[in-house]
Amino acid sequence: MSRTYAQRAKNFPQNEVARMLLKIIEQKRTNLCVAIDLTKKRQVLEVIEKVGPYVCLIKEERTNSKDSSGSIKGKLRFSKAKTHIDIIEDFDQGLIDELRILQERFNFLIFEDRKFADIGNTVKLQYSSGIYKIAEWAHITNAHPIPGDGIIKGLKEVGKPLGRSLLILSEMSSAGSLATGSYTEAAIEMARRHRDFVIGFVAGRKLTGNNYDSKNQADNDVIDNDDFIVMSPGVGLSDAGDKLGQQYRSPRDVVLKSGSDVIIVGRGIYGEGRDIIEEAKRYQESGWNAYLERLELQSNK
Ligand code: 6AU
C-alpha cells in the first residue's frame, strides 16, 4: 500500500493499460476519475473541455510557459474520464472521434462504465458490436461477477487482443448493496484467476495485495502478484448522498483510510450550480493530498 503509483506499474506485467494509467496518475499528480453521466454529446464534451484547459496548460507548464496574466496555471485535473455511453441521446461516431482527440490532447484514459452482467457469449457481443462498439474505444470497462467466470472469459476474448482491461464490481456504493461478504470474496478470487485481463476492482476499499513497506529496495523490486487497482465511486465533498441511495465519502476517507487508488466523482464536479473547473481542482487536490498522506504514514511506520 505504501508504494507509489509509479512503483506499482511493475506489478502489472501483463496489462499495458494498468501501467499506462499508473504512469499518467504519477505524471499528472491526479487520482481523480471524472464520471460523466450526461445525456447530450455536447454536454459531455463541454465537461471535458472545461477541465481540459488545465491539462493543456500542464504541457505549457512543463516547458515553463506562462499564461497571459503571467501566472503558471495549476496542474491537470483528471487522469481518466468515465462514460455511460448508452445514456447519450444523440450518440454517433463523431462523439467517439472527438473523445479520441480530447484524450490525446489531455492524456487521459477512457473507462466505459458498462457494468456487463450477462453470460459470456452475450457480453462478447455487447462489448464488440451494436451501435457503441465499446471495445474499439474504451481502454477500461467493468463487469459484475454474478454470472461467474464466463463473463470475464467472454469479455477477454474481445478485449485482450485489443489491449483492453477490465474492472470487477466487487462492492457497490449504494445503500443496501448485496455485494458484500462472501460475494466480494468470490469476486476477488475470480479476478485473481484472470490477471491477464482484470486490472482491478470497483470497490470502497483496498481488497488485496501486500501491504508491507520494506526499507529494503530489493524487497520492493519483487512483483506483487496480488496488486489490483481499486477505483471508488460514491465520493463527494459537499453532500452525504442523493435521494436514490447513493452514499458519499470524502476523498481523504476513501484514499487514506480505505487505501483506494482512484476516486470516481460525477455530480460533485458538474452538478447544478457547481463551478466545474474549481470543483475538479478541489477533488484532484483532495485525492492527491490523501495519497501523499498515506505514503507518509506508511513510511513512518
Ligand atoms: O458521483 P456520482 O454519484 O454523480 O456518480 C457516481 C458514478 C456513477 C455511477 O454509475 C458509478 O459512479 N458507480 C459505480 C461504478 C463506477 O461502477 C459503482 C457503484 O457502486 N456506485 C457508483 O456510483 O456513474
TrEMBL record:
<feature type="binding site">
    <location>
        <position position="173"/>
    </location>
    <ligand>
        <name>substrate</name>
    </ligand>
</feature>
<dbReference type="GO" id="GO:0004590">
    <property type="term" value="F:orotidine-5'-phosphate decarboxylase activity"/>
</dbReference>
<keyword id="KW-0665">Pyrimidine biosynthesis</keyword>
<feature type="binding site">
    <location>
        <position position="246"/>
    </location>
    <ligand>
        <name>substrate</name>
    </ligand>
</feature>
<keyword id="KW-0456">Lyase</keyword>
<dbReference type="GO" id="GO:0004588">
    <property type="term" value="F:orotate phosphoribosyltransferase activity"/>
</dbReference>
<feature type="binding site">
    <location>
        <position position="82"/>
    </location>
    <ligand>
        <name>substrate</name>
    </ligand>
</feature>
<dbReference type="InterPro" id="IPR013785">
    <property type="entry name" value="Aldolase_TIM"/>
</dbReference>
<dbReference type="Pfam" id="PF00215">
    <property type="entry name" value="OMPdecase"/>
</dbReference>
<feature type="active site" description="For OMPdecase activity">
    <location>
        <position position="115"/>
    </location>
</feature>
<dbReference type="InterPro" id="IPR014732">
    <property type="entry name" value="OMPdecase"/>
</dbReference>
<feature type="domain" description="Orotidine 5'-phosphate decarboxylase">
    <location>
        <begin position="31"/>
        <end position="283"/>
    </location>
</feature>
<dbReference type="InterPro" id="IPR011060">
    <property type="entry name" value="RibuloseP-bd_barrel"/>
</dbReference>
<feature type="active site" description="For OMPdecase activity">
    <location>
        <position position="118"/>
    </location>
</feature>
<keyword id="KW-0210">Decarboxylase</keyword>
<dbReference type="InterPro" id="IPR018089">
    <property type="entry name" value="OMPdecase_AS"/>
</dbReference>
<dbReference type="GO" id="GO:0006207">
    <property type="term" value="P:'de novo' pyrimidine nucleobase biosynthetic process"/>
</dbReference>
<feature type="binding site">
    <location>
        <position position="267"/>
    </location>
    <ligand>
        <name>substrate</name>
    </ligand>
</feature>
<feature type="binding site">
    <location>
        <position position="37"/>
    </location>
    <ligand>
        <name>substrate</name>
    </ligand>
</feature>
<comment type="similarity">
    <text>Belongs to the OMP decarboxylase family.</text>
</comment>
<dbReference type="GO" id="GO:0044205">
    <property type="term" value="P:'de novo' UMP biosynthetic process"/>
</dbReference>
<comment type="pathway">
    <text>Pyrimidine metabolism; UMP biosynthesis via de novo pathway; UMP from orotate: step 2/2.</text>
</comment>
<feature type="active site" description="For OMPdecase activity">
    <location>
        <position position="113"/>
    </location>
</feature>
<feature type="binding site">
    <location>
        <position position="266"/>
    </location>
    <ligand>
        <name>substrate</name>
    </ligand>
</feature>
<protein>
    <recommendedName>
        <fullName>Orotidine 5'-phosphate decarboxylase</fullName>
        <ecNumber>4.1.1.23</ecNumber>
    </recommendedName>
</protein>
<dbReference type="InterPro" id="IPR001754">
    <property type="entry name" value="OMPdeCOase_dom"/>
</dbReference>
